[in-house]
Amino acid sequence: MKHIKIWLAALLGPFLFSCHYLDIVPDNIATIDNVFRMRNTAEQYLFTIYSYQPKYTDAYNYPTFLGGDELWANEFTVNLVKPAWQIAKGFQNVVEPYSNYWGGANGGRGMFVAIRDCNTFLDNIGKVPDMDDYEKVRWAAEAKFLKAFYHFYLFRMYGPIPLIRKNLPITSTTAEVKVKQEPVDTCVAYIAQLLDEAAADLPDRITAEATEMGRVTKSVALAVKAQLLVTAASPLFNGNGDYATYTGKGGVKLFNSTYEPAKWTVAAEACKAAIEEAERGGHRLYYFNPAFLPFPASPETITEMSIRNAVCEKWNPEVIWTSTGNRATTLQLESLPRLYSSDKQSTTLASFGVPLKVVEQYYTRNGVPISEDKTWNYNARYATRTATTADALRLKPNYVTANLNFNRETRYYAGLGFDGSRWFGQGRFNDADNVYVEAKLGQIANNHAWAFSITGYWPKKLVNPQTVSSATEITVQNYPWPLMRLADLYLLYAEALNESQGPGVETFKWIDLVRARAGLKGVAESWAQFSINAGAPNTKEGLRKIIHQERLIELAFEGSRFWDLRRWKEAERVMNEPITGWNYFGKTADAYYQVKYLYTQTFRKRDYLWPVKEEDLIENNQLVQSPGW
Fold it and tell me: Least CB-packed of 84, 155, 375, 484 within 10 Å?
């Protein structure tokens, strides 16, 4: 097999990588014919088009980590010219766009090249002689799904895009090759059609787990369709008056500026179908089995492990789609604070910080926002107090930390590491033998020139509980990156139901399922008992805000916030707020627990859509630039 892979790489190299991004005319015809003469080489070609997926766990370049406002890197560690970091700092441009997935540069991958290769596969898979027809049908469905997904990925970034329905013949004229962007509604309809066609021929579940995990199923196709249609129904793409004058060549309107409520109904139907298919396929919300622990565990610890392992336990039943080619090694090393004074400094990177505004979005232990809880002193959140032995499963006893860290929901402690917090795991898994973070200047987590969090918080959720940082080495327990969890789908459904029908039993059901796993009561009960805005869940507007916050909490650090803030058109508000953290130069509690301003981001209206590179507009005069660029 190894010599086949080497031969295939040599054979396909020029074909796959030397073409321009919108070169939709296949070349090297003889090479293509050779590839589809055998099942083995055709399969390698299929794996090649899988490999065009974005590098989701590229901690420094993939935009959803350092390109937004959910993580803020220690500037002493991270190279400031990294593409994602440049986007976060407001330096996106038209000359050399960062995370350029249109052309495949500056941290991006060429999605149009990927789409062309999907078309090539679809055109030729029927020719392979040593394959059964059922296998050809399945592989074609996988290629069709990937073609749809790559179009969707571009759509989410650029809005109106050219649709590459088929590769053009080699006799095509220059004018025929110069494709145009198509209207948003046309793009959505085409991508949804591809996903429906793919779903019809995809397997219900993966049975050959040893060799096929990570390949797509019917559940994956329907989940991505749900995600697509919720995105299309959201304010950025549904009735967005800001783009009323956005037209393509020939005067074609690329955005429908009239709001269409029916899009939410269609999205809700897609979410329901995706959930039903996922549950038929064996997917369910993940709950940790305490029998796997060597010692008896408290309910608090079991809930924390349910939350963390829903992301970090590979192949767990909640994950609908997993990217096997993306392993969270660097993400874990950047999210793990130094826990021992002799930690290997070369591998404990520890520089991904969580801004205070993200820390504050988590609920209190009563399941409502900290600014609304009648029992929680919001105005004193930055003051300090001393933890007691009763706090030992959350905070270090007899240790001074901020009020902000007391009496928060379990997802707070499962998702965040901070000064005085317990870091459960580390090979111990014992409630009586805990490791705690100490992050004031000169303490273990903040005594190195660059291996510390600049905000005072780490995204603990990204670190597998079985990853061990010891006094002599770090052993990373890796996991493939989860692209879609059932909890995500439940919350998409709740959002679509609220927008199409308003609050009701069915709408609350799906949020409350996610909250129950986190150890919280339902929305209606929690707001009625503890919120100063007790009636908020009873209106569409009030419940919309609750659902948005629930998504930001449940899916924190998984990439959803980056896209959600954009599709909700909330990025202009949220991402113009300053990035703040604790004073990492402070040696005492009084000095450390002072809010420090780190950066003021700038998000303009134009930033909702990616710019098309200027050079591309010159080469193809049928394209138009994204608004504002």
Answer: 375
* The pLDDT value given to residue 80: 64
CB 187 within 8 A of CB 158: no
> pLDDT value at position 474?
86
Secondary structure of residue 327 in the 3-state scheme: strand
Residues ≥6 apart with Cβ < 8 Å to 572: 603, 604, 605
Residues 55 and 61: their CA atoms lie apart, in Å, by 8
Please indicate, yes or no, if residue 469 is contained in any of the structural domains: yes
CA angle 480, 482, 486 (to 5 degrees): 145
The answer on pLDDT for 39 being more than 50 is yes
d(CA 305, CA 319): 16
Domain that holds residue 300: 290-483
Give bridge partners of residue 247 from the DSSP assignment.
Answer: 253
366-400 in b/e form (b: 16+ CB < 10 A) is: bbbbbebbeebeeeebeebeebeeebbbbbbeebb
pLDDT of residue 211: 77
Q: What is the mean pLDDT of residues 48-65?
A: 92
Is 451 contained in some domain?
A: yes
CA 567/CA 159 separation, integer angstroms: 11
**Total domains present in the chain:** 1
Tell me the pLDDT band of 344, cut-offs 50, 70 and 90: low
Question: Is 506 part of any domain?
Answer: no
Is 543 inside a domain boundary? no
- Output the CA–CA distances (angstroms, integers) from residue 529 to 236, 367, 532, 535, 542, in the order listed: 35, 10, 9, 11, 16
- Residue 65 carries which side chain, given as an amino acid letter? F
Residue 390 dihedral angles phi and psi, to the nearest 5°: -70, -20
∠ Cα 441 408 487 (to 5°): 110
Beta-strand ranges (E) seen in 26-167 are 72-73
Predicted confidence (pLDDT) at residue 346 exceeds the cutoff of 80: no
Label each residue of 236-303 as H, E or C. Answer: CCCCCHHHCCCECCCCCECCCCCCCCHHHHHHHHHHHHHHHHHHHCCCCCCCCCHHHCCCCCCHHHHH
Alpha carbon 92 to its chain centroid, in Å, reads 20
DSSP 612: P
Q: Are 606 and 627 within 8 A, CB to CB?
A: yes
Identify which of 488, 482, 484, 538 has the alpha carbon closest to the alpha carbon of residue 514: 488
Burial of 570 (0-12, 13-18, 19+ CB in 10 A): middle
pTM: 0.93
Counting residues of the chain whose pLDDT is more than 90, the rounded percentage is: 81
Identify the pLDDT of residue 13. Answer: 34
Checking if the pLDDT of 459 tops 90, the result is yes
Helix, strand and coil content of the chain, in percent to the nearest 5, comes to 45, 10, 45
Q: What pLDDT, on a 0 to 100 scale, did the predictor assign at position 116? A: 94
Which of residues 561 and 178 earns the better pLDDT score?
A: 561
What secondary structure letter does DSSP report for 97?
Answer: -
Q: What is the pLDDT of residues 565-608, one digit of tens each?
A: 999 999 999 999 999 999 999 999 999 999 999 999 999 999 99
Which pLDDT score, from 0 to 100, does residue 4 have?
30
Distance CA 585, CA 583 (A): 5
* Contact by Cβ (8 Å): 305, 465: yes
- Separation of first and last alpha carbons in the chain: 48
Residue 12: the pLDDT is 35
How many residues are there in the chain? 629
